[in-house]
Amino acid sequence: MSQILRLIILSTSLGIITACSTLATDVPFVYEIDIDQGNVIDQLMVNQLRPDMTKRQVIYILGSPLLIDPFNTNRWDYIYSQQPGGEDRTQKRLALYFNGDTLVHIKGDLAPEINPPPPPPKEITVDAPKRDLKKTLYEMITGLFTFED
To answer: Residue 35 to residues 30, 62, 105: CA-CA distances in angstroms?
Structure first.
């Protein structure tokens, strides 16, 4: 009798554990975080790259590389992986090749465009309407001593 009871308890506990694991993946209205890994790379950043740029200029634009090959220090790899909550993961790769200190070749998922559009302006210009300003205190005092016809 005790063996049957143990078997029932074991099978029930295994059933509960496996049922909870399958329910936890498909629960509606559960917030799933966005996961970003690596160097953020976008087309505007890649469009700024030009041949004969120095390594310092490349670091200024893209940041430090995620991977520098220890056997080939003239190759820098940038990898950006993004997984919006619950969706499939997307990955962008970019490999930069140098000759000494100058950029020679770009290879990867993103490449500089031949005629890239200008980057969006970072400053916003607002036209303010003109207004009639009252006289300042200085102008009122000096106006007392001037005689205009």
So the answer is: 16, 20, 30
